[in-house]
Queue: 2 jobs
Job 1
Amino acid sequence: MMKSLLCWPEPVIRVQSLAASGIREIPERYIKSPSHRPSLNNDDVSQPQEVDVPVIDFQNLFSSDRGLCEEALRCVHNACREWGFFQIVNHGVSHELMKRTCEVWHEFFNLPLEEKQKYANTPATYEGYGSRVGVEKGASLDWSDYFFLLLMPLSLVNQSKWPAIPASCRELVAEYGSEVVRLGGKLMKVLSMNLGLEEDSLLKSFGGEENVGACLRVSYYPKCPQPDLTLGLSPHSDPGGLTILLPDENVGGLQVCRKGRWLTVKPVPNAFIINIGDQIQVLSNAIYQSVEHRVIVNSNEDRVSLAIFYNPKSDHLLEPCKKLLTKDRPALYKPMTYDEYRLTIRAKGPCGKKQVESLKSPRQSD
Ligand code: OGA
Ligand code: NI
């Protein structure tokens, strides 16, 4: 492994502590260049325009009523094509479990700093309590802290790296994780069918049910005295397969880039927000594309979100599905393992869609 990935290049500052210190102005490191600030595309940052991202009744996708099922499949397909994002309701994950898992993470982040520091992460694996992605010295920083942990494959799970306090945390995360990963498997089937592939095709390309990788990133976006100068999370596309996000039910902040504009997502109660990652873009040969998104912060309330990333087996070679290739539309991407792909992001941090674009076969990019 590259030496530079073993430790952080400078002392880590917890954004939550910074926010709690009562500063009126944020440090230089968090100030984005004018063109990257949230205010540019919004007339009024304090009241960003909220949009409705397509909502799909997940149950209908598996209904015996063919009309309902086909309609729901079509909605997912269109959302994947046009937004790269959709929301699902009636997804089968217990609302009570969702709520309790959110609460337990609120409690974790409200613990004294010393307790959280026991889990301080390093860029070697990113597992644990962190405050930045990327190891470039002097890089611009985002206004958030996070906790990152592995849920799958089971052989790599190490619960001793998960918070021991609150006492119910490990149990809740394990239960929540397994429910959401199961949901991820169903989504993979839906996307396969919509692409005209065998139902288990995408999952097989990911290395099969027992080999897929899944991880949880809980993000904590503290309230910020100058929200119009910074971002909670810089523009990026998710590097993996699919993301299943449980946004804060009280505080908005997720923005999706659509036709060159940043739109704030209006979360539907008890829904998950699903988005396409770079590896689905590769497998589908860009029939589905990952879409850039970012998070804005505000001066009134902290925000907590839970993202589960459903990813390929890390050493599995991924390339566009043969069945989707035609003479007019040959493979756009060269084969690569997810391990290799992820390395760049782990070194450089969020970089919009640069990483997946750089994968393009030379033939295509001239
Ligand atoms: C992510 C992400 C969005 C959010 O973690 O990749 O995009 O609302 N999170 O926290
Ligand atoms: Ni993301």
Job 2
Amino acid sequence: MKVLAKMLLVGATLAAFFWRDSFDAGSLRGARVLVTGASTGIGEQLAYCYARLGAQVVITARRENVLQQVARRCAQLGAQKALYVTGDMATTSDPSRVVKFAVDELGGLDYLVLNHIGRYSFSPWSGDVHHVRGLMEVNFLSYVQLASAALPSLEKSKGSIVVVSSLLGKVSTPFTAPYTATKFAVNGFFCTLQHELAMRSSDVSLTISILGLVDTESAMEKVSGRTRVVPYPAGEAALHVVRAGSLRQKESFYPWYTHLVCLVRDWCPFFRDVIIRNSYY
Ligand code: NDP
């Protein structure tokens, strides 16, 4: 009994040590942040989180009228600066133009937050290769371009790249083949970049946030009534990503079950696949 109590105590102490909350909200005051895909959903909430913490934010997406409103709200919430720039991440020129705008306007960059995604439908694979190519451009290749364009400024500021990724970049599920392919590509590329940054002792941190289902309008439109998976709030997901980036974590998981799924993913493939297939209608 005593041995068990000691083991529990040691376990609790280790858990408290590893999960201690060292997030310093003040560290983001004045931070120069570029958030992509910030007109709606998690990106919009990310912009509001940074704004509340007194950061200087540049937001980007395609729709100018919506960006204008989000930027205005950011200013009301306390952003030291709240600017927007329109950009279409399906083009090859806009990613570097957007980064240049942010660096010029903010006088450098501390955080590049890669979040945008193109439209896709929740449906069985139809054979449309053109759509996969287009989605790769928006969801993956533009991330690579944005990161490449921002790295020199981030090296100077000892800044951070924060990648908003998905559990579907770790585990495959039905009805999302093109999207899943882009997220696997994102995870693969940025995990490799993490190694290379570490091997050359770069001061740039790279955080990959793995998210489960979040209740954004676009996600709910796709999956409502078609899955048993419970969605989590976008505001909470955004705060999680902001904290993980600020703590310079390599990988972060939201909500809790995403980490568990990644840990047990390959233990029992048969049961994993049965559970996955039974999670969708
Ligand atoms: P939304 O669909 O709500 O938002 C997508 C954003 O990307 C919008 O701001 C949109 O603005 C912008 N966008 C779309 N196409 C382009 C383009 N061609 N060029 C530039 N910007 C574009 O996405 P979510 O908030 O749901 O997801 C955000 C991130 O979170 C994504 O990386 C996603 O993979 C990840 N995630 C989301 C989950 C969820 O359940 N919601 C689960 C797991 C991960 P505009 O139309 O104005 O261009």
